[in-house]
Amino acid sequence: MHRTLSLASTIIFGIVALAFVPGCQAKAGDSCTKGTASCVDATNQLSCQGDKFVQVPCRGAKGCAVAGEKIMCDISANKAGDVCSTDDEGSSACSADGKSMVACEKGKYAISTCGGPDGCKEKDGKSQCDKSIAAIGDKCDVVGNACTTDGKGLLECKDGKFVAKADCKGPKGCDAKGAQIICDAGEEPAAAPAAAPDAAAPAAPAAD
User: Fold this and answer.
1) How confident is the model over 31-86, as pLDDT tens digits?
2) pTM of the model
3) With contact defined as beta carbons under 8 Å apart, do 45 and 109 qualify?
4) Where does the chain have alpha helices with state H?
5) What is the pLDDT of residues 92-120, one digit of tens each?
């Protein structure tokens, strides 16, 4: 997925000039108008943060490009800790393999593992990350539960990380295929709410 910014035609013209005319290119720290952006080169973007530009990497296959009236920055391969504009808080993209999600959080990109059966998918222009299957220590952002990757344990989201909650010793183990997480403890299977899916917008019904 690309992070896109719509720009007025007058601004687009200025950005094209800045991007391609030697000696006229904007740089990080220069003044900007909220919502504006420009491509520094094929893999980096200047994005407005407050009233100053910050440089943001576009590590995805499509890099940084001008498309019609939009500047498009492919963040799908960005790394944890890469800079993002705080004005773009919550913008996100699925990785190319659909197994993780990249999201802007407090001026840095963060990576979430999407180990559930739905992985990471784009829906209505937003990224949704299925975290119904996870490992201890994996990032989580909402109250909810997940099955361990071996299907033998139940995890809960606590302080932004998944931690162990219960062993699922019964023959059915931990089942994350439905709307609820089912942990077979060897007695009466206990149902637990699945973690809601992470997204740049509202999360979904299954675990995230």
Assistant:
1) 999 999 999 999 999 999 999 999 999 999 999 999 888 899 999 999 999 999 99
2) 0.74
3) no
4) 9-20
5) 999 999 999 999 999 999 999 999 999 99
Domains of the chain plus CATH, in order, are 2-113 (no CATH), 131-195 (2.30.130.50)
**DSSP secondary-structure letter at 206?**
S
Give the residue among 204, 149, 148, 155 at the shortest CA–CA distance from 179: 204
Give the confidence band of 18 by pLDDT, cuts at 50, 70, 90: very low
Smallest CA-to-CA distance from 61 within 37, 49, 77, 48 is with 77
CA–CA distance, 12 with 67 (Å, rounded to integer): 10
User: Do 99 and 114 form a contact (C-beta atoms < 8 A)?
Assistant: yes
Of 26, 30, 195, 178, nearest to 113 (Cα)? 195
* 174 within 8 A of 152, measured Cβ to Cβ: yes
For residue 166, which phi and psi values (nearest 5 degrees)? -160, 155
Query: Which residue's structure tokens are 């071996």?
Result: 150
